[in-house]
Amino acid sequence: MILHECYIYTLERSATTKSIFRCRNRDCKARCRTNLSMDTFLSLPTAHCHAPNPELIPAIQLKNHIKARAATTDEQTSLILHKALRTYPLNAAGQLPKTDALALTIRRQRTAPTLDPDGRLPEKLRKTDRGEDFILFESKNLIIFYDKKQFIYFETVQALAR
Fold it and tell me: How far apart are CA 133 and CA 130, in angstroms?
């Protein structure tokens, strides 16, 4: 995205020497062109058919901040939201997405752990946060989980993949 004079542009396409951006408002025909590193305009933005909406800027910045934290940390979703919303300006609260939508944004940024090359769960998923083992048995088709009380949970690998 590019922010220029309170208008927001999104990438429409890239060529070998330039990137072409269009106005975020899809009813608007405004376009601009930049070099591939996006540090210089090759052609300034064309005219817009609407007024700028500077209230959208904090909401977009909030979503980008949340996406970055979700991708780089293992913090709980609620903790990421709480930290990000503490500094959100009140005058832009009308543009704030719903909490459920922000939580979904966080979940989409997180990657699911992959299986080891031999098809087993990675070591991170084999232990609790306190470092205790909780897998009693693991094969290609069956994983048996247990806790300290020896209460046993059976799960098929297909059920875990869902």
Answer: 9
Contact at 8 Å (CB) between 45 and 31? yes
Q: What contacts 73, CB < 8 A, 6 or more positions away? A: 80
Instruction: Annotate 89-132 with DSSP letters as a single string.
Output: -GGGGGGPPPHHHHHHHHHHHSPPPPPPTTSPPPHHHHB-TTS-
- Cα angle 59, 7, 87; round to 5: 25
Task: Tell me how far apart the alpha carbons of residues 21 and 1 are, in angstroms, rounded to a whole number.
Answer: 8
The verdict on pTM exceeding 0.70 is no
List the pLDDT tens digit at each of the 162 positions of the chain.
888 888 999 999 998 899 999 999 999 999 999 998 888 889 889 999 999 888 888 888 889 999 999 989 888 999 999 998 898 888 888 888 898 999 999 999 987 777 777 777 887 777 777 777 778 788 777 888 777 665 555 555 555 555
Angle at 57 between CA 39 and CA 15, to 5 degrees: 35
Domain ranges in the chain are: 2-43, 55-111, 113-161
